[in-house]
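Supplementary Methods. Inverse-folding protocol.

Structures were first reduced to a discrete structure-token string of length 129. This string, shown here, constituted the complete conditioning input.
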């Protein structure tokens, strides 16, 4: 990720702390992110992992899954905050480009949280069986 994008993302990490404390805000954020993701576009490459991230945040906010460090949740929430924000590195209303930076940030978050997502996937699979 380029330095400008990293700097913008860091601002969202501090905002994410509010969401860790307020589960209803987290649920609303997740709803907005899920709705925005339906457009897919550049998100196709990370679609399955993004759905896993959504599921993890949903289970975490409902209190069903707690085997994740707070720092990891903060990073995931920051990524979702960046994603739903219409004003980020590339404004979302710019056709064809607006979601590109969002996909880069979400890809970065997914890569950084890979082991946490895998642990959750295993937990989720065991819960369903």
């Amino acid at each position: 990720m380029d330095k400008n994008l990293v700097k913008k993302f860091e601002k969202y990490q501090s905002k994410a702390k509010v969401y860790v404390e307020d589960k209803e805000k987290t649920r609303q954020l997740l709803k907005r992110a899920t709705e925005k993701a339906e457009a897919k576009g550049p998100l196709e490459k990370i679609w399955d992992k993004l759905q896993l991230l959504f599921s993890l945040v949903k289970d975490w906010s409902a209190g069903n899954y707690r085997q994740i460090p707070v720092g990891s949740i903060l990073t995931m929430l920051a990524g979702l905050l960046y994603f739903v924000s219409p004003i980020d590195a590339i404004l979302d209303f710019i056709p064809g480009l607006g979601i590109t930076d969002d996909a880069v940030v979400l890809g970065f978050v997914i890569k950084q949280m890979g082991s946490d997502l895998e642990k959750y996937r295993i937990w989720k699979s065991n819960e369903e069986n």
